[in-house]
Design goal:
alpha/beta, Rossmann fold, seven-stranded parallel beta sheet, three-stranded mixed beta sheet, 11 helices, 40% helix, binds nicotinamide-adenine-dinucleotide, binds uridine-5'-diphosphate-4-deoxy-4-fluoro-alpha-D-galactose
Amino acid sequence: MVGKMSILVTGGAGYLGSHTVLTLLQAGHSVVVLDNFSNSSAVVLSRIAQLAGRAPTFVRGDVRDGACLRNLFLKYPIQAVMHFAGLKSVAESARQPLNYYLNNVSGTLQLCQAMAEFGIYRLVFSSSATVYGDSNEMPLSEDSPTGVPTNPYGRSKLMVEELLQDLADAEGRWGIAVLRYFNPVGAHKSGFIGDDPNGTPNNLLPYISQVAVGRLKALQLFGNDYPTPDGTGVRDYIHVLDLAAGHLCALEAVGRRSGLSTWNLGTGRGYSVLEVISAFERACGRKVDFVIVPRREGDVAQCWADPGKAFRELGWRAERGLDEMMADAWRWQLTNPDGYKESGV
Ligand code: NAD
Ligand code: UFG
């Protein structure tokens, strides 16, 4: 166990960042959140404070803004950084590639440069299983070859992984964790914080939740002709709080070891879209209407993790099952039908 630290969480107001900030505060760390609210709102920060009994320090700013980062590092004695800030829509990335490279790649470069100037060399980075591309070999281990991403979002994640490797090779003081997330879902048990995507959701769980709560009509199920047991896409869904716990373990590890290490954060178990719909229906006691439509471009048939390396090296494994993920996602949706909007906090 590392001592209590002062940690910068970029993108800490977002879905994954907010749950991780809460977990860090509950573990006794001091947290500074840097976020530009491009995909989040201030409400989440007061919700975190309610749950943790104390608030994270908040700096409104952009990771692409070097001056803002330097002021932050001058003001707060940051020892490690968790870097969640970035854009994450696959479809949007194809329409706005420049924006994705600027936020995801340039943002990370600015951050690393400012960190190095201030002698901060511990970094935990949010990568994605998307870097594996379309593989027939399941489960995916960290040794599986990275593929050829089909979109600018995926390419931006792979580019950042590569530039971080160059950094670690060039300067032995860096301790970098690259965490490849599989499909994070669910919410904190309180129903106070959760996933609140802007506009119509791209991802399965927020879409299903909004159908169940009556905000959207029917789920479009993208393809039932995949070479999977029931023909629908198979993914490794992981509870957001298990993911957050994985970050704490990775933080400790980058304090012990230098260089760059890559860990999958997944459960090791895949579920099909139809299985997820059934589990959600059990959790909410309602029917989730869906229509089968053609496959979505760029989707792989199946994707699940070998989480063994994270267990061996970090002592971390996901503990929550699919039913708990669905129940928690539903509680969040039911108590916040419009997300954080128009919330009385
Ligand atoms: P999110 O959009 O909810 O959170 C990202 C946060 O970063 C938001 O609060 C946004 O306002 C902020 N942000 C974006 N650009 C910024 C910038 N330039 N400067 C400062 N703040 C900025 O997304 P999330 O689901 O919490 O994802 C967090 C990270 O994890 C992202 O890097 C994403 O690519 C990665 N990831 C997410 C998933 C997933 O399914 N959610 C899967 C794999 C990887
Ligand atoms: N799906 C539907 N209908 C929808 C949304 C999704 O049928 O409206 C299906 C997809 O075809 C897929 C499964 O539900 O089979 C999961 O889809 P998501 O969009 O929730 O998740 P993805 O696996 O496509 O994408 C996630 C992250 C990306 C990341 C990718 C690979 O959202 O950021 O995993 O790691 F790039």
